[in-house]
Structure formats: structure tokens, C-alpha cells
Amino acid sequence: MATLLKVDDAQASYGSSHVLHGVSLALQEGEVLTLLGRNGMGKSTLLKCIMGLLPLRQGSISILGKRTQNLAAFEVARLGVGYVPEGRQIFPTLNVEENLVATAANRHGAKPAFDLKRIYEFFPRLEERRNNMGNQLSGGEQQMLAIGRALMTNPKLLILDEATEGLAPLVRAEIWRVLGELKQTGLTMIIVDKNLKPLLELANQHVVLEKGHVVWSGSSQALQDNRVMVEQYLGV
Ligand SMILES: Nc1ncnc2c1ncn2[C@@H]1O[C@H](COP(=O)(O)OP(=O)(O)OP(=O)(O)O)[C@@H](O)[C@H]1O
Ligand SMILES: [Mg+2]
User: Fold this and answer.
1) pTM exceeding 0.85
2) CB distance 42 to ligand 1 below 6 Å
3) Which of 107, 169, 213, 233 is 20 to 30 A from 197 (CA-CA)?
4) In contact, 164 and 143? CB cutoff 8 Å
């Protein structure tokens, strides 16, 4: 299996405030990895660095063996990374279908490719709302749309920041169902979410951040067996 993502000693800051202090991790193709940790520990910052939205002060990030230093976010996306940021950032004045096709591509010849038909099979709700504008959607529909839009780029790696934050239980269940089905297709994913239970079922590997340091990493079983760590770093 190929190494899809390698993060080596990543350090990053916002101005003079140093936020990541040497984070390293590796993700194999087909794996699902979670980034865990309380508020403000650096999860979103690390995802921004991977996406090329924030430069590293030190260290390196490679995607399928290619160093991403100096690449802009759109170039990282073209390497095959789909990103669903906190806040979703869907296009408010485009309708659902226009949002889905706006950035669609299949640069790496994925088979079967994600197209509108397949996205609507994953999320029937989006098909019902296909002519509604982005700003007329509920939070759950917006999140489905953000995931669908990222999938329409046929990514090799899908990154979800706060996958189900602020969503109603039924909608959350729908998102987890789809993420489970996507894993079955072999899609590699990094997921940040506050709900540990569905993550334990879905992920191969968990990485816990504390003030910009990796303080623990391991399997779902190892995480469940380590109550002390879970209480100390996740507070649950
Ligand atoms: N744009 C920014 N400018 C300055 N500081 C920032 C910025 N974004 C985040 N930070 C700070 O960087 C640190 C890490 O934030 P980050 O958003 O990566 O945390 P997080 O683990 O994603 O937290 P949450 O669970 O609340 O989403 C925090 O101290 C935060 O206040
Ligand atoms: Mg965050």
C-alpha cells in the first residue's frame, strides 16, 4: 500500500503565535485517520497546512511522495485532496447542482468516477434540493453539499473538518452512513469531529493533538483501552 500523506515535523504559526510544534504522521492509501483533541489544540491548523492554506515554518508535507512546499491550495487540490472546511463555504448564490459541478474534475482517471448521479445516490436529499440556492439550505444540507462537492473532484484524500458539528442527530447519522460507505469504496480520509463513537467504528488510526504536539496515536482498540489518556486529552 502506498503512503498517501506524510507529515514530518510540521511547525506552523499565526504571526508570532506558534501553534504547531513538530507534528508528524503518515496515512496509507485506503486508511481513515482522525485528528482528536480539545478546542484550540491545532487540528484545523494542521488541516490548513496540509491544504496549502497556511505555510509551514519548518518540516514537510508530501502527498503521494510529492512535497507540497510552496504549492497553493488549488494546486494541492489538483494533486487529489478534497477539503470540507469548518463552516463549509458553499457558494451561496449557486444552486445545489451548480455547486456540485463548479469545481468537478477527474484528473486522475478515477473509476468509477463521482458524478451527479452517484452523489445523488449517496445523498438523495441533495437531488430533492437540486434547484435550491446554497443560501436556502439547512446546515445539514449544506454539509452534504460540501461533501458532495469535494467528492466531485474525485479526490484521493478527503479531509473533513468538524464533519457533523452543529447538525441534528438524524443528519449526523446520515453523514456517518455516507462516510462508512465511502470508506468501503477505499477512499482515504482524515476526519475531525467531536463524536468519538462513530469515529471509533470508522477509523484505522487516531492522532491526538495537545497544544500543537502529538501526544498519542493508535488504533480504535488501543484508544478504547486507554481511558486515562481519553480523559486527560479529550475530556470525555
Ligand atoms: N487565523 C488565526 N489567527 C490567529 N490564531 C489562530 C487562528 N486560527 C487559529 N488560531 C489559534 O491557533 C490555535 C489552534 O487553533 P485550531 O483552530 O487549529 O484548533 P482546533 O484544534 O481546530 O480547535 P477547535 O476544536 O475549536 O476547532 C488556537 O490557539 C487558536 O486560537
Ligand atoms: Mg478546528
Assistant:
1) yes
2) yes
3) 213
4) yes
